[in-house]
Every structure is written in C-alpha cells, then in structure tokens.
Q: What sequence folds into this?
C-alpha cells in the first residue's frame, strides 16, 4: 500500500521500537503483505459489512505539544492523551499492579507481537497498530490479589491519530476489574486504534468494561485478544454511544479446561453513526463455556453490524456456547446487519444462537400508554428495559451508573 | 458406543449403501471434450434450436470466460478442469424422440426400474407425469395429453424453445441472469436439457409433475435447465429426483432452475438429491453446483422449496426466493445429510422486496463420518418491504467427532417495521432420548433412526406423498449404524 508505506517511511523515527530488528522486520512484512493484497474492500468477507472509513485515509498524526496533564471529569489511574501515556506514576506499580511502559519493555515482547499474526491473521486494524504504534503499557497483576484499574483515552487536539497497545497479564486466582474509557473531548476528527492482549492464568477472573462514548467526529478501532487458562473466567462489557464510526473486534481463545468467557455488548447509534462489533470465541479445550450477547438500539440513519462467531475445535468436547443478538430499529432509515456464525467440529457440544431484529414492541407500548404514561416516556422505558438484562450482569456499579447516565442523555437528546 | 466404532460402521455401511451404482451400457454420442464455441454450436445444432437461442448461449459463454470460479464456500476440492469434460451426451438414436414408451430401449426402462420409478407402473398407478431426463435428452414424457387438455405445458426445455419460443424468450434468464455468477453462466452456455412447465391462468395442476435426472455417461457434466412459470392464480407441485452411478472420477453437475410465480400463483418445488457421494475414502462422486431461484413476481404469490440432500461429494446449492410481489410468501425446508468425506454448503436466500412479505426457513443438517455440513443463508429486508416477517431455524446434529457443522446466516434489515427471528442449535443425539427409547424396548439402531427422523420431521412432512416414503427411507439408510 503506497500511502501507508509512505506514512511509515515519513514517521519512522517517531515510532516506538523503530530500532528493534524483529519489529522492523515485522513491519516490513506487513507492508509487503498489504502491497500484494491491497487494502480491504467490501469484497473481502471480513469487511463486507464494515465501515470503510477505517480503511480510507489512514493517518499518522502525532503532536507532542498537546500532551499535558489536563484533569477531566472522568479521570483514570492511567491516562492516554493524544496516543501517549501520561505518567503520574512515580513508582512502578499502582494498586498492586506492576506497570511498565511498553517502550522500555518492548524488546522482551516479541512473542506478544507475533501473536496477532497467529490469531488474527492478516487483520488490517491490528496490522496498522503494529506499524504505527505510538505507545502502550504492560500491566501485570500478581497471583492471588483483588484489584482494579481505570484507563482513559482522550485527545485534546484536533486530527490526532493514536495507536496504542497494552499487554495485560492476570496472575493465578486473582480478581481484576479493568475499566477502559474513551473520553468525550471537544476536539474533532480524531482516530484511535487500541489493541489489548489479555492473559488470564489459572483461576483468574477478569471483568473488563469498555465504555466508548467519544465525541461525534471520532473514529475508534478497538481490538482485544484474550487467552484463558484453566478455570479462568473473562467477562467483558462493551458499550458504544456517540462516535462517528466504531469498529470493535474481540477474540477469545479458551485454551484451558473449564475456562469461560462472556462477551456482553450494548450499543446505541443515531445520525449517520456506524457501530460495528465482532466477537469470536475459539474453544480449544474441553468443558469450556462461552456466551456472546449483544443488543443494539439504532435511530435516524445509523448503521449497526454485529458478527458473532463460535468455533469449537475437535478436542473441545463438552462445550457450551451460546450467542444472542437483538436489534431494535427506531427509524425507517436505520440498518442492522448481523451474522451469527457457528463452526463446530466436536460432537458432544451444546451450541445455539438466536438473532432478532425489529422495532419497539407495539403491544408493550400500548400497555404502558394505557396506564397513563405518554408515548415518549413509554418508549424510553422500553428501550432501557431492552438493554437492562445485559447490563445488570455488571458487577462494577460505578460504571453501571455511568452507562445509565449516558443512556439517559442519549434518550433525551 | 465409542465414536470410532460408529465411524467404522458408517463407513462399512455406506460402502454398500449406494444402491444405484450401476452403469447402463449404451452407446453414446457426444462432441469432443472441452468447452468452446464449437461445442456450444454442436449442442445447439443437436437440439435443433432456433438462432436466438444459440446467440444467447454464446453471449453467456463470452461472459463466463471473463468470470472467476467463486471460492467463498466452505468446500475443498481439486480445481475443476472445464476443458476435460464432455458437455453433451445423448444415447444414440435419440434424434427422433420416441412417441410411446414401447419405442424406448428396454435397458433404459430397466435402469429406471432399478431406481424405483417404473414409468409404466407409475403411468397407471401413481398418477405422476414423469419427464425423465436420461443424460441430456428427455426420454419420455408421460401424461402429456391429459395435461394438454388443461392447457398445461410440460415438456423438455429444448422442445419448449422450438414450440413455445415466446414464453422461453420472455422468462429464460429473467430470474437467474446469465451474468449472475460463474456456474449460472456456464449452465446458460451449455445447458442440454431439463423441464419446462407452464401453468395457465387459474389452473390447478391436478397431479404432481416429476422429473428424474440421471447422470450416466462417464465424465459427462450434466447441465440441466428448468423453467417453471405459474400464471395468475395457478398452482403446481413439482418433484425432482437425482441419482448417478458409481464412478471413480468426479463428475460435474451445474443446473439452473428458475421459477416464476405470477399474481396469486403457488409453486411447490421438492427435490430429493441422491447423486453418488463418492466412496468411503472420498474418491469420486458428483460435484453439484446448482443455482435455484424463484421469483414471486405477483402479489399474493408463493414459492416453497423443499429439499432432501443426501448425495453428492460436494453440494453447493442455495434455492432462493425473491419476494417481489406484496404479501408474497417464500418457504425453504431442507434436510442435508453428509457422511464419509461429503461436503455440503447449502442454504437459502430470502430477499424481501414487497410489502407484508413472509418467509420461513427450516434447515436440518446432519453430519457424520468425516463430512462437513454448512448452512449458509441470507435474509434481507429491503427499505420497501414494510411489515415483513422472517422466521429461521437451523439445527445441526453431529454424529462422531471427525465431522463438522457450520451455520453462517447473514441477516440484513434495512427497515424497522419488519421482524426477523433466527435461531440455531447444534448438538449430538441426546443420551436422554436414546435412553428413553431403549427403555421401551427399541434397539439402538431403531432408536437412532427414530430420533433422527423426528429431528427431520418438520421438513419431511412437507414433501409430497410420493417422495415422503423415499425420503424417510433415505434418511434411515444414510445414518443406519452410525451410533452405537
């Protein structure tokens, strides 16, 4: 791809790890690959329903002048501004979590980088992340602790592009809550590309909450790649509301016995917004459980896409895998496309998926109205109820309240 | 009840299971191998086609040459050499069509008897009009006279091009345009025979129309083309059955079926596909690339597809409905059974264009041995298809741990007044159900057969009587011995 290659050559010296031979080689290989395959188009199955804004006009705009510590309404333990990590941490750990800059540590992380070429083969979004990496962290939660962490992403300049990668390891039998938040800033035309890799060791439990409530003109691409060892449990809540275009992909590998994963998602979109979610669960081992539940509410001329995937390998007997996708279309011009896929190569499994798309249930609306609640209020009630059964599984009440507020704002706007 | 013994039992059984593995020894007449303009000219000449038909074929051939074979299906097979196939094969001496069954080579009649469709018997007893296609030439068309009285046209497509050119010209390629895709273009260029049905306005076809396709000559591709037109307020039920003899080499079958239902008309199309699936090591077998598409052109029209797919090494088939008329209805009922190294990638497309349109999809996939069974479907509500509904249910059953089952449904909703519901499940035969049946004195085999038949029942009961018995037998045969 000439433009991407040009961008890369122009900015080589700013990029993280530009002197490291293996990373250089990896980047060159990606560029070579892109040159032969070209950038994705609608003809490519994985991009058939996706928003090509993430493909066109790939940017690398890095501006250090804006990176200063501004306190926001919503402020995390760890903050990224304009794609750079703002260090407030004097020690190497907060809340029992060991934190290191990816930059200083990158030399030890070859295997974590080659991971995406093994598990997300030729994925354009994560490939871009590898090429243009602006910053990232390695987080390590030790064994047998219970802790939590908030990460925020914000942009205080216009037209910034950030490429961030975090590598998160959770030790044996630890409980960890990670809350990631994309801030709503008063800036325009920003794009973020975040890629997180999670390792859950034996018995680890993680609740991952992803709140994407960025400003209207922003583009967000978020990828997560999760590995679960024996008896570990990963629970993810993904919430979208507000950005021009979001493309999320979450891939979980259940590589240990009796591990489990839950991908929950709730998305709201209006105007001409585009929300694209994809979840994939790969069952490598026996007796694992997975659940993928997404619900979306679309209004105006917005577009929603939800692709869910369950792959059960021949060794993964006694698997339970469920998927559910429900969409509510509030306007005539809103569009929802879903593709719930099952690929099953083991026989002793219980797998199913369900998918529905429709408008607000007229009977329910009538019921509420007949009890004296006006139409607008009734609709609001029903929309909130629609998403509630997904959100109420969230253990972190602070985040739940925050999401609640965002939904209320969305409904009154 | 170990899975290994299941698999070996399946293998053991299926080796002897293909009842139709005989070759009728007939001299055949065919052009040189390969596809070229002269092959198409040969076919057209042989069929005594008018000039416009040849032109249409050549146009399709030009388009086909520029196309690429699709690769998106979840199928693995060696690349097909399109120049290594005979594109036309007819038993010698068929230039003049026989007027009655007595004039037909007794060997052919015998072949049909082995398949279980005794023409003579059926003519008298079953009340089924059979348009039997032996390789590429329609052998005999029974019951033609009775149908003619009602104004129903039921003949081979080549006959129709000669006798009813206005209908063929108008509708051929109207549902599946020659530019549609690789296999449909190929078929349009070289199609040899198939059925043509026209039901006039307000007529309810009194009997089930049926065609039995059969690939006989070695290394011959069969490219049949079927065109069914149901005029306003008419009804027709059409049956299609397929078998092919056992051969080591792979044979290609690329058919196009077009259905057109005008206002208030209903077409019911049932298929039992039992082409040779290859041996237990995956050698040989039919490559089945079929394009079937129905157009609900008029308001209140209905098209219903029912299929039982047990054969073929590769099945690539998506009978679809375009619901153009308001209040039109599309249905798809399917049972796909794969065994050994069979691969099936099948499903449907329901394209909702008109208001208040309804569609229903029931798909049952059963995989055993080392086979792969994929359901691939699309449901699309366009902007204008207000108040439309779809209900989809795809269930898969896995027998043994070497096979795979995939479900790939595409759901696209472009308007908010329509409702789509989709559900799917994958599981193995429930131990509880097996236990229940065994407890009541049934053997393991009987129990499995009972459970599988129950699993497929929703689809099997949609088949016309004549087929239901055969289908039930086929389901039993395909899976006998696969558990326990």
A:
């Amino acid at each position: 791809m000439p433009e991407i290659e040009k961008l890369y050559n122009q900015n080589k010296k700013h990029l993280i790890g530009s002197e490291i031979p293996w990373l250089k080689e990896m980047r060159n290989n990606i560029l070579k690959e892109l040159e032969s395959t070209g950038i994705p188009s609608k003809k490519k199955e994985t991009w058939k329903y996706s928003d090509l804004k993430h493909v066109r006009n790939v940017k690398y705009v890095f501006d250090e002048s804006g990176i200063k510590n501004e306190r926001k309404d919503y402020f995390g333990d760890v903050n990224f501004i304009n794609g750079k990590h703002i260090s407030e941490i004097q020690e190497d750990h907060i809340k029992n979590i060991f934190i290191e800059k990816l930059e200083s540590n990158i030399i030890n992380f070859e295997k974590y980088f080659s991971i995406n070429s093994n598990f997300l083969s030729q994925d354009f979004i994560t490939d871009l992340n590898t090429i243009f990496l602006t910053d990232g962290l390695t987080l390590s939660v030790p064994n047998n602790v219970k802790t939590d962490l908030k990460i925020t992403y914000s942009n205080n300049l216009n037209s910034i592009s950030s490429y961030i990668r975090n590598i998160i390891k959770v030790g044996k039998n630890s409980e960890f809550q990670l809350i990631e938040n994309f801030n709503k800033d008063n800036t325009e035309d920003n794009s973020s590309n975040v890629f997180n890799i999670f390792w859950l060791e034996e018995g680890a439990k993680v609740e991952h909450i992803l709140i994407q409530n960025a400003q209207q003109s922003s583009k967000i691409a978020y990828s997560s790649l999760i590995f679960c060892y024996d008896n570990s449990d990963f629970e993810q809540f993904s919430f979208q509301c507000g950005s021009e275009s979001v493309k999320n992909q979450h891939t979980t590998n259940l590589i240990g016995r009796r591990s489990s994963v839950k991908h929950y998602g709730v998305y709201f979109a209006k105007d001409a917004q585009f929300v694209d979610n994809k979840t994939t669960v790969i069952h490598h081992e026996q007796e694992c459980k997975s659940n993928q539940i997404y619900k979306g509410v679309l209004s105006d001329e917005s577009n929603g896409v939800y692709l869910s995937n369950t792959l059960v390998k021949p060794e993964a007997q006694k698997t339970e895998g469920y998927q559910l996708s429900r969409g509510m279309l509030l306007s005539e011009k809103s569009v929802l496309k879903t593709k719930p896929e099952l690929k099953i190569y083991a026989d002793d499994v219980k797998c199913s998926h369900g998918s529905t798309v429709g408008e607000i249930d007229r009977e329910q609306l009538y019921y509420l109205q007949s009890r004296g609640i006006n139409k607008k209020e009734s609709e609001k009630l029903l929309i909130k109820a629609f998403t509630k059964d997904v959100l109420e599984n969230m253990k972190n009440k602070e985040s739940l309240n925050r999401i609640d507020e965002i939904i209320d704002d969305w409904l009154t706007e | 009840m170990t899975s290994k013994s299941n698999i070996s039992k399946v293998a053991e059984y299926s080796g002897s299971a293909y009842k139709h593995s005989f070759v009728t020894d007939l001299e055949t007449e065919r052009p040189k191998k390969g596809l070229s303009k002269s092959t198409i000219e040969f076919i057209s000449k042989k069929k005594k086609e008018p000039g416009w038909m040849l032109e249409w074929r050549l146009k399709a051939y030009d388009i086909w040459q520029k196309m690429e074979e699709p690769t998106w299906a979840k199928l693995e097979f060696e690349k097909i050499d399109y120049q290594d196939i005979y594109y036309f094969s007819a038993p010698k001496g068929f230039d003049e069509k026989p007027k009655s069954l007595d004039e037909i080579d007794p060997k052919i009649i015998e072949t049909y008897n082995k398949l279980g469709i005794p023409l003579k018997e059926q003519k008298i007893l079953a009340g089924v009009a059979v348009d039997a296609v032996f390789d590429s030439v329609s052998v005999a068309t029974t019951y033609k006279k009775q149908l003619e009285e009602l104004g129903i046209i039921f003949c081979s497509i080549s006959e129709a091009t000669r006798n009813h050119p206005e209908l063929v010209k108008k509708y051929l390629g109207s549902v599946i345009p020659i530019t549609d895709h690789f296999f449909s273009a190929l078929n349009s260029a070289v199609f040899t025979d198939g059925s043509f049905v026209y039901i006039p306005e307000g007529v309810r076809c009194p009997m089930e129309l049926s065609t039995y396709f059969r690939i006989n000559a070695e290394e011959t591709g069969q490219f049949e083309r079927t065109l069914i037109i149901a005029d306003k307020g008419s009804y027709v039920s059409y049956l299609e059955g397929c078998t092919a003899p056992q051969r080591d080499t792979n044979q290609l079958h690329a058919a196009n079926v077009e259905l057109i239902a005008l206002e208030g008309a209903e077409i019911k199309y049932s298929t039992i596909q039992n082409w040779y699936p290859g041996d237990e090591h995956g050698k040989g077998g039919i490559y089945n690339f079929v394009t079937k598409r129905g157009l609900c052109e008029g308001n209140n029209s209905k098209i219903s597809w029912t299929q039982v797919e047990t054969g073929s090494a590769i099945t690539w088939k998506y009978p679809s409905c375009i619901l153009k008329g308001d209040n039109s209805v599309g249905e798809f009922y399917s049972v796909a059974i794969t065994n050994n190294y069979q691969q099936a990638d099948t499903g449907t497309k329901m394209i909702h264009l008109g208001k208040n349109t309804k569609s229903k999809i029931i798909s049952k996939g059963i995989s055993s041995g080392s086979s792969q069974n994929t359901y691939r479907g699309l449901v699309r509500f366009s902007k204008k298809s207000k108040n439309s509904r779809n209900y989809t249910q795809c269930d898969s059953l896995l027998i043994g741990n070497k096979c795979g089952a995939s479900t790939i449904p595409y759901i696209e909703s472009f308007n908010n007044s329509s409702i789509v519901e989709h559900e799917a499940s994958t599981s193995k035969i429930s131990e509880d159900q097996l236990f229940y049946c065994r407890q009541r004195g049934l053997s393991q085999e009987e129990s499995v057969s009972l459970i599988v038949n129950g699993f497929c029942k929703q689809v099997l009961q949609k088949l016309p009587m004549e087929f239901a018995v055969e289908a039930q037998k086929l389901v039993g045969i395909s899976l006998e011995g696969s558990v326990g």
Observations:
- Residues 1-17, 92-97, 121-128 of chain B have pLDDT under 50 and may be disordered.
